[in-house]
Structures are given as C-alpha cells and as structure tokens.
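Subject: sequence -> structure tokens, single chain

Hey, anyone have a minute? Need the predicted structure for the following. Not urgent.
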Amino acid sequence: MTYLLAKYTLLFLLSAVLGFVLGYWYSRRNMEDVTESFEDLRKANERSDEQNWERLWSHLRAIPEPKETDLTSVHEVLNGVMTAVSRLPKPEPVNFQPVVENLHKIERDIKSIPVPATPAPVDFSPLTGKIDALQAAIRSIPRPEPQREVDLRPVEHRLKSIETEISSLATRLQARATVAQAPRREPRQAHKTGAREEPRILKAALYGKKDNLRLIKGVGPKLENMLNENGVFYFWQVAEWNDRDIEIIDERLDVFKGRIRRDNWVSQADQLRRDPEAARMPANL
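Reply:
Had a minute. Here:
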C-alpha cells in the first residue's frame, strides 16, 4: 500500500513539473511574439509620425509671409489732430474774486444782525385757568344715552301705499274730468240675436260655477270683482270680445283702462276656456 502511494505521489510530481515546464515555454513563446509585434507597431508609428510632421512643415513653409500694414495715413491724421489741438487758444483763468467778495459781504451782514434779547416770560395763568374751567364744565355735562335705532320701515311702507292711493285717485279724477264716463248699464241676460252691439253680459253666473278670471295675466282680485259687477263671469265671454266690446268694457274699468289689449285678455281667455274645468258656453246663445 505504501509502495503504491509513493508511486502515485512520484507520478503526480513528475506531471506537475512537466506541466510547469510546458506552460513556461508556451507563455515565453507568446510573450516574444507580442514583443516583436509591439516593436513592429512602434516603428511603423514612428515612420508615420515623421511623414505627418514633414507634411505639416511643408504646408507651413508654403504659407506666404504676412506683409507689414501701412500705417502712414493713420500717422498723418494723428499728426494733423495734434497740430489742431496745439493751435487751440488756452482758456483764460476764471476770476472768482467778485464771488468771494460777495460771500464775505454776506458773512459780515449776517454777523451784523443784532441778536434779540431774551424775551420776558409770558404769564399764561389766566389762559390756563379758563381752560381748566372749560374742562370742568365739559365734564359736568351729562352724557346722553345712546339713541335706540327706530325701525321706520312700517311707516315707509304705509307712506308709499298712501302715495300710491293718492296718485291713483288723482289719475282717476283727471280721467273723469277729461273723458265723459259712459253711462253704467245694468247687467242683462244675453239674447239670441246674431248681430250684437254690446258684449255678452250676464246678471249672474247662470251657466254653472263661474271661472277663476284671475288666471288671466293682469287680472287681480279687484279687477275680477269689477268684471263680475259688469256681468262677466266666464272665460268664453272674454274670448268672444271684439274691438267694440273691448272699448265698452275698457270704459268701465276706471284706472285699469288699456289692460285688456296690453295683456291680451282675449287670446288668454280663448286658451283658458278649453280647460276641462272651465265652464262651457251654452248652445242656445
């Protein structure tokens, strides 16, 4: 067993030495090849550099030498300027003596001004006493209590309503004075004649429940009452008005004259009469 182990160890050592020798020889050979290649490359670069420098110097030698700039004309112009400047007259020195003398005179005048003597002390005691008395009187005045803010809006609303009533009364009186009021006719039942000279007016709402005339734009509670007093209770009555009917009813509306045409009551009533809840016009009229 020991013999085999020694034999294998010897073989391992021999193979290691042989491998080292072969590796060294191979690396040395490659190193020499690289060294020779590097040397060849360096020589080629030197030859290329010498050719480049020679070519550069040949180009530089081919460049013409610069000529000197002729500055003769510039020197002549500068000489002319210097001559002109030398011929300029020298300025005369400014004489400040009068100014200095005037300043000295002003200084002497200022010094000659007499200094006022110390004024006598003023007695302010009477004025101080009056001021103290005034302050005491002001302090004795009782301070008024702050006035509470009064809400005058109800009064303003009432005044506006009174003003509106007065203006409407004046307009009504003026209208009665300028235009003769048409004689008030008693409401009568509509008749069956085809040609009529007056609007269809009724003594009462004889054909069912009267319509809500306030649905017409521009008709309020007061106008509705006035229309009922003049025998108008239904939409179909207003929808049949012609120009003559409008003039007759308009004369009876006092201060509301012109509202029928302005708010187009006839067209509105013609739309409202078609409502299912609106009263229907009797067939015998």
